[in-house]
From TrEMBL:
GO MF: N-methyltransferase activity; nucleic acid binding; S-adenosylmethionine-dependent methyltransferase activity
Protein name: Class I SAM-dependent methyltransferase
Keywords: Cytoplasm, Methyltransferase, rRNA processing, S-adenosyl-L-methionine, Transferase
Residue ranges that the Swiss-Prot or TrEMBL entry lists as coiled coil: none
Domain of life per record: Bacteria
Methyltransferase small domain boundaries: 15-175
A single GO BP: rRNA processing
Stored InterPro entries: DNA_methylase_N6_adenine_CS, RsmC/RlmG, SAM-dependent_MTases_sf, Small_mtfrase_dom
Length: 184
């Protein structure tokens, strides 16, 4: 059975059954959006962009010249195309853990998934962190939200020189990581 076509919800975004957070704005993503600085780097990416919620706050920040939305789920990407009309946005139907950009990014935002089907797998989030460090310039910056119980601090510290928690609540933590570690 095919998913119903995307419809605009009460939150003002197009979503459809089967996409992450289809009925409401994800609390973690909202927390990440609120924690973003007023100025962001020029070349940005959203890994696991979903239906494009984070694109609006990223594109509203000073300094952003381009934003690549990278999403593996075709339904989510179709919704993102409806939600994001800014010409600085480019859409990529791809697995964020395997994606190879044309040029490195200056900054990345992400709310990485941690489920494969219905099974929790923090390894997926760790793979997102490793991919982000690989895709960034030497002075690149990552902003990431995660559920508080997920053990991402070690992977972040292995992949980035500087890691800070910049926001959080009872359920989520928002990280800012800078200067990806070079692998020899």
């Amino acid at each position: 059975m095919a998913a119903p076509p995307p419809e605009k919800g009460a939150h003002g975004y197009f979503t459809t059954a089967g996409v992450f957070s289809d009925g409401a704005i994800d609390r973690g993503s909202a927390l990440l959006a609120d924690a973003l600085p007023s100025k962001l780097p020029g070349r940005m990416a959203d890994l696991g962009a979903g239906w494009g919620y984070l694109a609006a706050p990223v594109l509203q920040r000073d300094g952003v010249a381009a934003l690549d939305l990278i999403e593996a789920e075709a339904l989510s990407l179709a919704c993102a195309r409806l939600n994001v009309s800014d010409p600085r946005a480019q859409f990529h139907w791809a697995d964020a853990t395997q994606f190879r950009p044309d040029a490195p990014y200056d900054g990345i935002v992400m709310n990485p998934p941690f489920h494969v089907s219905r099974t929790a797998d923090p390894g997926l989030g760790r793979a997102f962190i490793q991919s982000a460090s690989r895709m960034l310039t030497p002075n690149g910056k990552l902003w990431m939200v995660a559920n508080k119980h997920l053990p991402y601090e070690t992977t972040l510290s292995e992949c980035f020189r500087n890691v800070d928690i910049i926001a959080g609540d009872a359920a989520f933590k928002v990280f800012h990581a800078t200067k990806p570690q070079t692998k020899s």
